[in-house]
Every structure is written in C-alpha cells, then in structure tokens.
Amino acid sequence: MTTQFGPTYVRAIAPYVAGKPISEVAREFGLDEARIVKLASNENPLGMPESARRAILQAAAQAASELGRYPDSNAFELKAALAARYDVPPEWITLGNGSNDILEMAAHAFVEHGQSIVYSQYSFAVYALATQGLGARHLVTPAVKYGHDLDAMLAAVAEDTRLIFVANPNNPTGTFIDGAALEAFIAKVPPHVVVVLDEAYTEYLAADKRYDSIAWVRRYPNLLVSRTFSKAYGLAGLRIGFAIAQPEQGDLLNRLRQPFNVNVLAQAAAIAALGDTAFLEQSAALNADGYRTLTAAFERMGLEYVPSDGNFVLVRVGTDDQAGERVNLELLKQGVIVRPVGGYGLPQWLRVTIGLAEENAAFLAALERALAPA
Ligand SMILES: Cc1ncc(COP(=O)(O)O)c(C=O)c1O
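^ Histidinol-phosphate aminotransferase, sequence as received from the core. Prediction below:
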C-alpha cells in the first residue's frame, strides 16, 4: 500500500493552471520565441512603467547591501504612499506577495476548517483553491449572464459562512457589477461575514463605471478591498498587491502574513508606479482601443463574447466541448498563447488578454485560420 500524505481536502485540490510561458511554447512547437504572442495571463502589454524600471535600478544600485538585507517588513514608505493616495491610515493597509497572497491570507484569517465560503460560479479560480486549501465548505452560486448573482450569494450565506469573495470586474468573464448594486449587497451581508471585494482590474474601468469602494471600507468593518500592481500597473513579475480594510481585519491578516512577503524591488517599483498616472491612463486607453478591435472582429466573425470591463475578453470558439482546447492548440501552433477555460466549466470558450495593436492583430489572424473549415 502506498503512503498518502496530507489531508484529504488538500489532495482534492486541482492545481492552478497558469498561462503557458513563451519559452515552453517555443520548445514544444519549434517556434522562434521572438514571434510568439502571449495573451494568456492578463498582464499589461506595455510591460512595466519606465518610472518603476528606474526605481528598481536605483534600489539595486543603492549598494549591493540593500538587496543583501531583508526588506522593510512594514513597508513604511509604500504604505505611506498608499495611505495618502486612498486617504486611509497606514494601519488599514496590508501588503501581499501579489493580491493572490491577500486572498489566501483572508481565507485563513477569517475562516475555520469546516466553515463555509460563498463565491460565484465562473469567478476567479483562487477562491475555490483558498476554500479547498482550508478544508472549508464551498457555497458556489450559479452565475447569471456569466456574472455574479448577488441575491443568490446573499441567500447562500449559511450560519457557518464567514467570508464571501466577489470579483469586480470578474476574471475570467470580465463581468461588472455597478457600484450601487454592490454597495446595497455589502450593506445586507451579516456583519460577522467578511466580504473580500477583489478589484484586480479596477484601474481599467471606464470613468462612468467607477465607484468609491474605499469610502465603503470606512462604512463597513466587514469589507476588505483587494487590489494589485500586477495588471494596469504592469508589475506582475514583482508580485505585489494590497488590502484596504479596517484595522481589526488588518491586524488578523498581519498575524498570518509572512514577515518579508514583499521584496525590496517590488516596494520601490510600486511606489514609483503608484505615482505614474500617465502610465495608468495610457494603459487604460490602449486597453479600450484593443477591446473595440477584438470585439468588432468577434462580431464580424459571428463569435459570441461576454462584454468585459477587464483587460481580457471571453470568446466562444465553438459549440462542442472540445472547441476551447482544439482552437487553443491551433493557436499555439501559430505561436499565439491564450487561455483555455475548461477548468472553469467553460470548455467552449477561450479567454484572450487584450494586447498591443499588433498582438491583437496577430491573434485575430491566427483565430481566423484556426476556425477556417479544413
Ligand atoms: C480577479 C483576480 N484577482 C486576483 C488576481 C491575482 O493577481 P496577483 O496575485 O498578481 O495580484 C488575479 C490574477 O489574474 C485576478 O484575475
């Protein structure tokens, strides 16, 4: 008999499937790395802002000693910059190694093994992983038009529910809940249940869709807003995100947080990026242009897509349950990496990140070829 390590609930975890790296696709399909287009992980196609690059070089140059020492565990300067930006005390901010780290910490901080977590069908994969990793119960509500059904989520709250995950906009569907509906929902959640509002893509929202969730944090002690530097700020490789919540929550998160979870370079780059509003505006404008290009092409090609407020679009590439994988393979052969979402229960769809104009064009050309009758 083979020995089985670990709890059953950990063995039941389906590991997170990340977007394929460029080098792997180049090796596997015998392609030139330079010609591969990666639109698979909702990164900023502009890369990191120049301001952040300079801050990193400066931090690295300051003396080898800076990188030879542990980072400031409390990230004094970055928290001060975030506190000023959002007009909250620094104690209301908790930093994460990516916002993924925040989501995991929140699950561990607020939920006990056996208690339950509510999240929506088709919402970000990490909610299921964090729930399963704790041995907590999943209360998954059916999506409506691929997005969150807030009434159903409220109705699903059980006696043992301690946390609700809401992504706005949601990944992988790009669906958006308007501010008024979201606040009405938060107001109705029982005060002992924490709402983790995951706003990884909030910087991409059009001006008329923005809402002030930080004002809600002041009003609702059970609200935690999660943000990231990985998307519009262009720092995915550095791994840095943050939570804004009242200090009773932050205190618990910080007990679980690994003391040096955000490295020296990430802290320096984030301070620079936070002040770089020009880069954010450029990123949002490029994204809006790319969205128009992609969706116009999908309409021309007769492909269904889910209207998106993020930096990606979910598009239906067939009507059989092999369609996503089949078309994905045809795209890979042409050096285009997107994300199949069969793992989300969407086997007929692909999620494509909005790229630079030439990347979008390369994807669309490859998609037309992939879908052309043999
Ligand atoms: C909705 C959502 N939340 C959180 C994350 C985590 O991002 P990171 O850990 O890079 O901040 C992602 C990444 O794709 C996401 O789509």
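The two ends are 50 Å apart (CA to CA).
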